[in-house]
Amino acid sequence: MSFVQRELPIKITFSSAVKRPKKLQQHIKRVWIAGPEDFMPEELELDADDVASGGVMLVEDLLLPEDCEVVDRRGNDPVVTVPKASKDKHHGRGRRDGHDDYDD
């Protein structure tokens, strides 16, 4: 069994149980992996259900195949960031809401 190093793309996935966030920033799109050639996938999937409502997932959160390891120096760097969902705050632009300038 021969060991190889490859740079693999990272695919961010969400299950159907969670709503995919509108805003998602993927910081790292590829990472170097070392392991047996027989178990080396074409791409890595990062299940991001835990951060669907906001949070950060790191390189160390990647699920790796058996006997594979990250050989990239970015072990603690964020792969994906999802901002916390905030309610849209419209400050009443153009609305008067009962504040009339004229008294009848």
Automatic annotation (TrEMBL):
Keywords: Ribonucleoprotein, Ribosomal protein. GO terms for biological process: translation. This is 50S ribosomal protein L25/general stress protein Ctc. SUPFAM superfamilies: Ribosomal protein L25-like. InterPro entries: Ribosomal_bL25/Gln-tRNA_synth (IPR011035), Ribosomal_bL25_b-dom (IPR020057), Ribosomal_bL25_C (IPR037121). It comes from Stieleria varia. Residues 74-104 are annotated as: Disordered. Signal peptide: none annotated. Residues 7-84 form the Large ribosomal subunit protein bL25 beta domain. GO terms for cellular component: ribosome. Transmembrane segments: none annotated. It comes from the Bacteria. The keyword Ribosomal protein applies. Residues 95-104 have a biased composition (Basic and acidic residues).
